[in-house]
Amino acid sequence: MDRRCLIVAEDPDLLDALLRLAAAADMDTQRAADAADARRAWARAPVVLLDRAGAARCGAAGFPRRESVVTVVSGEPEAEDWRAAVALGADRVVQLPHGEAGLAGMLADVRERAGAGSRPGRVLTVVGGSGGAGASVLATAVAVAAARAGSAALLVDCDPLGGGLDLLVGLEQEDGLRWPELAVGDGRVRAASLHAALPRATAGRAVLSVLSCARSPHGPEPAAVTAVLDAGRRAGGTVICDLPRYPTDAAIAALGTADLTVLLIPSALRASAAAARVAEVLAEHARHVELVVRGPSPGGITPDQVAASLGLPLLLAMRPQRDLAAALERGRTPGSGRGPLAAAAHTVHERLHTAGAPARAAS
């Protein structure tokens, strides 16, 4: 697909406005002088912008319907504008200057999708089934696995009482935005701008952006969480959210957006009992939930038994990792080395990109 915006416009004022809006969205443009020029780029352009005359010319030339076509007018849309828009498959008829903000946001979205190419963005939420399950550690390790796989990895902290993921990855002294400083004005966030504004953690050659809660009891707003997750998905990146066990509004927003939710629990009787309550919440709000069971099992409960008791598919049984707590205290980023944690994170990351197909448990 061509990444240039196709503009077919004769009105000089509208043409100037469209060129300005495309430039603000960091989109290159190509202007078609006539229907023949427009036809050559019609199918390839990520978005087509037409004024009234351009829509009439393309319609008269019998151009096929396609997505991401916008007709732009300077006054109130007339009946003929709507007929031409429908004939070409236009998504909307925008009146300028009143509709500039909406059109600018739409162009920014198209620009990010075009930059992502055919790679679908993915969103994962990780929830601990009991206290101390290790959800933050697993979420961070999956983000490292995503970054190692070449994805634009974004680790998002949605647990305001968790102490801050920036502490877990050694970024507490680094500059960059945390949730309290992130302003989402019109409900849109550009992924490139977001990554540039956040502190970044490194694990070998892997680099991931981290949006952490601050050391306060106030977490992010649901609309802000949705905007951040949507931005990461539009840009073709991988977004991993660490969620609290209790259903905050922000957590519910993330669950509804995620392609896959992982419930992590230790292989213990009391942890399974606690996880049953969490699973009820997830069943109400999440699209797709799978289980990761972390060993060892002091009472001999098997991962399959835990999964059966919760009525959830078992994604994997995770072996315990020696000296993990000590490594974390020394500042080592979770999942940065080898071992059961990194292996589990790799499996979860792979599963995220096939979510919707039946799970095959790994051990």
Q: Mind explaining what this structure looks like?
A:
With 363 residues, the protein is an alpha/beta fold. The chain has two domains: 5-116, Rossmann fold, CATH 3.40.50; 122-354, Rossmann fold. It contains 14 helices and 13 strands. The protein has helices at 12-24, 35-42, 52-60, 79-88, 100-116, 135-148, 165-168, 191-197, 222-234, 249-257, 269-285, 303-310, 324-329, 340-352, and strands spanning 5-8, 29-31, 48-50, 69-73, 92-95, 122-128, 153-157, 200-203, 206-211, 238-243, 260-266, 289-294, 314-318. It has an eight-stranded mixed beta sheet, with helices on both faces. Helix 12 (303-310) links the parallel strand 12 and strand 13 (314-318). Helix 6 packs across helix 14 (340-352) and helix 9 runs parallel beside helix 10. The longest helix has 17 residues, at 100-116. The two termini are 41 Å apart. The model has no long low-confidence stretch (mean pLDDT 88).
Strand pairing plus helix content: what structural class?
A: alpha/beta
Strand percentage, roughly? 15-25%
- Shape descriptor: elongated
Mean pLDDT: 88
CATH top level of the largest domain?
A: Alpha Beta
State the distance separating the first and last CA atoms: 41 Å
**String of helices and strands:** EHEHEHEHEHEHEHHEEHEHEHEHEHH
Proportion of residues in helical segments = 40-55%
In the sheet with the most strands, the strands line up as: 8-9-7-10-6-11-12-13
Unreliable runs: none
Q: Which CATH architecture of the largest domain is right?
A: 3-Layer(aba) Sandwich
CATH superfamily of the largest domain: P-loop containing nucleotide triphosphate hydrolases
Quaternary assembly: single chain
GO molecular function: ATP binding; ATP hydrolysis activity; helicase activity
GO cellular component, one term: cytoplasmic side of plasma membrane
Organism: Pseudonocardia ammonioxydans
Domain Rv3660c-like CheY-like N-terminal: 8-115
